[in-house]
Structure formats: C-alpha cells, structure tokens
Design a protein that fits this description.
alpha+beta; 8-stranded mixed beta sheet; 7 helices; 13% helix; 28% strand
Amino acid sequence: MKNFVIPEKSLFPIQNLPYGVFSTREDASPRIGVAIGEKILDLKSIKHLFSGPHLNGNQHVFEKSTLNSFMALDRKAWAEARSTLQKLLSEDGQLQDSSYSRSFVAQSEAKMHLPVTIGDYTDFYSSIHHARNVGMMFRKGDAPLLKNWLHLPVGYHGRASSVVVSGTPIKRPWGQICPDNTEPIFSPSRFVDFELEVGFLIGGAPTELGQPVPIDQAEEHIFGLVLVNDWSARDIQKWEYVPLGPFGSKNMGTSISPWVVTMEALQPFKTQNVHREKQPLKYLQHSDDYNFDIKLEVHLKPNGASHSYRISETNYKYLYWTPKQQLAHHTVTGCNIKPGDMMASGTISGPTPDSFGSMLELSWNGEKPLKLENGETRKSIVDGDEIILTGFCDNGKFKIGFGECSGVLLPANQ
C-alpha cells in the first residue's frame, strides 16, 4: 500500500512541494513539512536522505521549528532539496515504502504554524489598477497617480510582530478617527478592510549594511511566495496617513498562508511583465520576465453563515512592479536583508470591478455597497465575518496551490 496518493487536480502535486511548519496532537513540537496531495511529509524524519553535495552536512536545517535556516542556504541547495524530494516522492520512490509510513500525516490532522520567523516586513503599493482607483477616490480632479508612482515601487515598513498564520482571528482595532472632517474621536474602527496581496520571503545569506542587491542578483534572495491579507482600518488610516503614511491603521494584524510556494515551482507559470508606461531608472531595469500567472480569489463568509461567497477574482500578473524591482529598490540605499524578511506586493487589483482586491474598491469607499449572493450588503468587514484568500496556478496539466489565507474579524476590546 502506498504511503500517499495524489488526488486528481490536487493543488499539491509533486510539481508543487511547498514548505510549511506543522504540529500534531501526538507531537506538539512545530517542525518543517512539505505538502504532497492530502498529506504532509515530515522532513525531520527523513533528513538523512538529503545527501547531495549542497545539503550533506546541512541536514540539521530540517530539524528546526521554522524555515529560516533552510532559507539561509543558497539557490543550489534549494534546488537540490526539491529534486531530492521529487525523486523520493515519485511513484516508485523510496518514500513509498511502508517503512516510511510514519513520516506522513494527514493535512486534516495537522496544526499549521507561522512558517518563518519574520525579522522585517515591508509592504509595497505595486498594483497600478489599485493605485489609480485609490487616487480617483481620494484625489478627485487631480491625476490619480502621484508623480513618483511610475518611477519607483512605493512602499512602507510594516510591523513584523503582528504577522500571523492563516486561521488566527484579528480584533477590530481602536484608534483616532475623524468623522466628517470635524474633530478626532477615539473609537473602534468603523471601516475594517482586507487587502489581497502576495508576499515574497527572503532567502540566501544575509547582506551587509551598505551593500545593495543589484537587480540581476535579486533572484538569488527570493525563496518563495505566500498569500497575504494586510488588514486595514481605513478610517484610522485616512486621519493618520498624511504626511508619513499608514501606522496604527495597518499594524493590528497581517495574515499569511501557511505554505510557502517556491520560485522553482512557479517557473512554468512565468508570464510577461506589465508594459511600462515610463522606462524606470537603470537600477530598476531587467529584461527577463519575472511575473507569474497566479489566479487569486477573495471569499467572504458572513457572521453565522454556513458557506462563503466569492467577492473578487483577480491575478498576480496585474502587478506593475516585479519582486526583483521591489527588492532592488528596497536595498539600493544599502538597507541590509536577512532570511525570513517578508516583502508584500500591496493590494492586487485587476482592471474590472469584479477584480478589485479590497472592500474599499469593491464598495467604492462605501458609495456602492457590495451585494452578496444571500442578499446582505457590505461597505466594510463586520464583526464575525471571515475573509478567505485563495491562490493557484493552472497550466492544464497540473495545478500549483497556495492553500488558504483566512481570518475572522473579532469585535473590538471593550
């Protein structure tokens, strides 16, 4: 009897092999695993099988409770781990032997944990459709894009301590709001929103302070992608963001998916970079395609409902600025990076109203409430609502899935 069977149209075929950190009731210690079909392969239990030239002597990285040490190795080691796993997990591979049956656990029986210790978190603003929508809403009569937007990947430094794994509830935050441009009050946010994003995790050796990562070396530091919901309190943000940008409106919680999909798994889904409306400066130029056809959806499960409703369908390929450009711009000042740092895309919106990546856009700042299939309407997220992000690639031969990135909004503290 085989140790695992990959169901047809599985989001976790042998071409995917995303990394995560899990525990079980029998063994509560978090450990590194790989999703295969409906199972998780425990890498700690098979670390001795990674005997190639780049991993021999480094098997200890699979004993850790996060991916940071493994991610700190180089791309050659990542590629070797992937090829080793694909060989071991093939139909006649060594891991199909019954002696390895205890190395697999059902995903349904596992608890997922934050896959990395995130040292620093940066949030970009890289979707031109989202940026234009926001500009049209809040700068009526002016050009929707600020002058700098087509010249550089706009971003800000976020709060790493409040990045949480999918399934962690988020509390409605308190803060200063200024209703109708009168005087500010201290109140729970009245406009909590989701932001559909995709983040990349930094790998490779840490860089030295003062040493930029040139764009032609950026790929050496991009380990993999995760889904991101960067929760936002729009009314708090509206009052605080001038002149230095988001602060308390964005630090109450950022949810990420538990599985890290490697860049090697995404290679078959590369697609053309978005056409540049202006040629960027030389340090941001790269001629190769580094964009990906990842189908993204947002589902909302209303408080008390038995099922969810899809409210948005978009694609990663709409991003104007690529991960290479984001990383090159982030470090051009000499800012150092280290394994486990996360850089998120910013809200990903497409060109049509059903492809917008936030409730701010879907309800057009509350002017056009979004109507759900059950008849309810939403201008923002209400207490008890669950937001579920999903993502996958599909080339007709196999799918590459990210799993879910979900979170329930809890009432504010009393």
